[in-house]
Amino acid sequence: MTRIANFTPREIVSELDRYIVGQAKAKRAVAIAMRNRWRRQQVPEDLRDEIAPKNIIMIGPTGVGKTEIARRLARLSQAPFLKVEASKFTEVGYVGRDVESIVRDLTAIAVNLVQEEHLERVQTRAAEHAEDRLVQLLGQPEAPRESPAGAGRAVGPFVVSPGGEVAPPVPVTGGVAADIRSRLRAGELDDESVELDVAEAGANPLISVLGGPGGQGLEDVENQLRDMFSQLPILGGGKGKRKKFKVPEARRILQEQEAQKLLDMDQVKREAVRRTEQSGIVFIDEIDKVAGRSSHGGPDVSREGVQRDLLPIVEGSAVSTKFGQVRTDHVLFVAAGAFHVSKVADLIPELQGRFPIRVELQSLEQADFKRILTEPRTALTRQYEALMAAEGIELSFTDDAIDAISAHAAEANDRAENIGARRLHTVMEALLEELSFTAPERTDRKVTIDGEAVAKVLEPIMASDDLARYVL
Predict the structure, then answer these.
(1) Whole-angstrom Cα distance, residue 421 to residue 65?
(2) Contacts (Cβ under 8 Å, ≥6 apart) of 31
(3) Per-residue pLDDT tens for 169-213?
(4) pLDDT digits over 208-258, tens only?
(5) How many other C-beta atoms lie within 10 A of the C-beta of residue 230?
(6) Torsion sign across C-alpha atoms 462, 465, 471, 472
C-alpha cells in the first residue's frame, strides 16, 4: 500500500493545511476519499470489488486552491497520480488526444514509480557489480590503436585478428585486482578515463513523424514502433556509441546499467498495472470547459462527445496499454472547474452520477490573503525573501505591509476579474519590481517593506482604473 495509508483523515487535512489556506470542506472530502482507499483494502475480498470509489467534483472560482489541493495530494501520496485538463481532449474522430490516453499515461507513471522503488532495492548489489566492472576496465592494458600488419586491431578492450577471431580481454584477478580496487575506493583513480558503450538518446525521425501535429491519437502506435525498431542497429538500436568517461562518471553509468540488469521488468509491469487499478488517482481540471449538452458547431463541436468518451473510463472499463489491459473500476477521479459560464447540471446526467461528492470552494477575501502571505510553509513573502537572499539582500515585510498588500489584492479582485490568490502574484511583482531590478547594484543590504512603501507604489496604480486593470 502507499504511504498515505498510514494517515488518518485528520492528519491528511493537517498536512494540506501547511500549504493551503481555508477550503476545509474540500480538504475533508479529499482526505476521506484517500482514507477510503486504505479501508477498502481491509475489506474481505468478496466484497472488495463491489466498493466503488466515491469520485469528487470541486466547484469554485479560479485561484481558490482546487489545483493546489491536487498538486499537494500528489506529493503526499505515493500512489500513481495524473493531472489532466479536460479541454485538451477531443471526441474520437477529431484531431487531438482521446480520453483513453489518460489511463495509458497513468499506467506509465505507475511503471516509473514502481521501477524507482525496485531500483532502490538493488542499488547495493548494482554498486558492487559496477565496481567489479570498473576494476576490470582499469586493469586492461591500453591496446595500441595502430597495430602492426597481421597483428590484429583493437576494438575497445577486445583484439580482433585478421581472420575475424575475437580475443576477449584477460580477466584481472588476484593482487592486481585488489590493488586497483583499494586505489579506486581511495579516490586515487578518479582522474583516469575508461571507455563505455552508452545508449544513444534521441528519437528516430522515421518514428517521430507519427507524433507530429494532429498525431496525438497515435501515441500507442508510436511507442510500439519505437520499442520494435530500437532493437534494430540500422535504426538506432543495438549497443549505442562508445565514449570515454572519467572514473566517477563511469561508476555512475555502470551502476545504472547494472541496476537495470537486476530489474525484473515483467514483475515491475505487473505491479504497476495492479497499483494503477487499485490505487490510481486522476485529477481532471477544467471539467467545466467541456460542459454543455448542445453543440452548435465550431470549435466546441465535440464537448458532449468528450463527456461521452469520459463516461466509460470513469464508470469502469478495460483500456489497452503497452503494459497490458488496465481496468479503471477502482481508479479515483477528482474533477474541478470554475463553472462561471456553465454549471454542473450542464454535464450529461450519466457523468454527473459518477461524481457523487460535490464540494464548493469559497472565494477568497482580504483575511484569506493575509493568511496566504504569512501562514503556509511556502508563503509568497518567504519566496521573495529567499530570492533576494540570493543577491545578499535581507528582505522583510512588516505587519502593516502585509495588511496593505492583502487589501490592495482584494480591491483589485473586486474591481476587475476575480482571479483569487493569483492576484497576489501580480501585486507582489508590481510592488517589488524596482528592488528586483536594482538588487545586484544596491549598497544597502537590508530592505524592509512597510505599509508606507506599499502605499507609495500601489496607490497610484489603484487610483487609475486603466492601470489597475492592466497592471494588477
Answers:
(1) 8
(2) 9, 10, 12, 13, 16
(3) 667 677 778 888 888 888 888 888 888 888 765 545 544 444 444
(4) 444 444 444 455 555 656 666 555 555 555 556 788 888 888 889 888 889
(5) 16
(6) positive
Taken as a whole, the chain contains a residue count of 472
SS (H, E, C) the chain: CCHHHHCCHHHHHHHHHCCCCCCHHHHHHHHHHHHHHHHHHCCCHHHHCCCCCCCEEEECCCCCCHHHHHHHHHHHCCCCEEEEEHHHECCCCCCCECCHHHHHHHHHHHHHHHHHHHHHHCHHHHHHHHHHHHHHHHHCCCCCCCCCCCCCEEECCEEECCCCCEECCCCCCHHHHHHHHHHHHCCCCCCCEEEEEECCCCCCHHHHHHHCCCCHHHHHHHHHHHHHHCCCHHHCCCCCEEEEEEHHHHHHHHHHHHHHHHCCHHHHHHHHHHHHHHHCEEEEECHHHHCCCCCCCHHHCCHHHHHHHHHHHHHCCEEEECCEEEECCCCEEEEEECCCCCCHHHCCHHHHHCCCEEEECCCCCHHHHHHHHHCCCCCHHHHHHHHHHCCCCEEEECHHHHHHHHHHHHHHHHHCCCCCCHHHHHHHHHHHHHHHHHHHHCCCCEEEECHHHHHHHHHHHHHCHHHHHHHC
How far is residue 279 from each of residues 30, 106, 266, 330, 430, measured CA to CA in Å?
14, 11, 20, 7, 43
Rg of the chain over CA atoms, in angstroms? 29
The dihedrals phi and psi of 174, each to the nearest 5 degrees, come to 65, -140
Q: How many Cβ atoms are within 10 Å of 129's Cβ, its own excluded? A: 17
Q: For residue 318, what is its C-alpha cell?
A: 478495460
Q: Please, what's the largest Cα pairwise distance for the chain?
A: 90
Q: Which neighbouring-strand residues pair with 197?
A: 242
Distance of CA 234 to the CA centre of its chain: 34
Asked if residues 430 and 412 have their Cβ atoms less than 8 Å apart, the reply is no
Query: What are the chain's domains?
Result: 3-117+268-360 (3.40.50.300), 122-139+154-267 (no CATH), 366-471 (1.10.8.60)
Q: Which three cell numbers stand for residue 34?
A: 484517500
